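Input set for joint prediction.
Command: fold jointly, output tokens.
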Amino acid sequence: MHRRNTEQRRVLRDIAAAAAGPLSAQEFLDAAQSELPSIGIATVYRNLTRFVEQGELRAVELPGEASRYELADKLHHHHFQCDDCGRVIDVEGCSDAFESLLPESFRIRSHDVLIHGKCPQCP
Amino acid sequence: MHRRNTEQRRVLRDIAAAAAGPLSAQEFLDAAQSELPSIGIATVYRNLTRFVEQGELRAVELPGEASRYELADKLHHHHFQCDDCGRVIDVEGCSDAFESLLPESFRIRSHDVLIHGKCPQCP
DNA sequence: GCAGTACTGATAACCCATTCTCAATTAGAC
DNA sequence: GTCTAATTGAGAATGGGTTATCAGTACTGC
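tokens >
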């Protein structure tokens, strides 16, 4: 099972690298089609799944939304989602004092923060 | 359209009031059936939707999970979800210094925090 | 009590993100 | 250039949460 470097994969990787936040399969498709109009949604899903298995990408799940994908080597960060356009943008840094809020009997592994509001591009 | 006080609604309201965190429709169903074995999932969904419309309950969306519902008059808080049993438990308090992480051009409206780990009941 | 209608329970239908199928295409070793 | 299997694109199929349908039930005003 030799891996091949297809144009589709190259385009998808470029999109992930240039993204300002995690993208959905549909967003990957839209972005990819502007460079490779014939690419289909099945290919996008197949490759996103594969990139996750290979450790290149990481899935980001947001409430009530389709899965999004971001580079796996990103440092700890959180996300902002615009109420209007729905775009998700990375937020660097983190003020984590969550541990102190729970009793000792809870063994904390991680935490996710999602900030809502309006992004600079929306009215 | 006169509102009626059915046994089903009374049970669902009791369950919501006694919950340690937001419950899914399935969890409402399971809890309700121990008191009212004939209650069906359609009735649960119908009433949860109705309670939300009436402002009694509020929907809580967690990544990759069915909607959950909690009392609408709860004060600002966050949630903990157990990696093992999946239960969701309220976390009082909040260390919010998120505003400072984003540029001024982002107008922040709210934030959600979800803490992951193991609850006291799980190994 | 009775009537009228809001409500319920069972199940079929729906919605939509994701996966599968399969014939056609193409990267890459030789 | 040839060969072969990995990959692709289109559309069908899937799965799970939620909603719609409809005949039967049971609140509540009188």
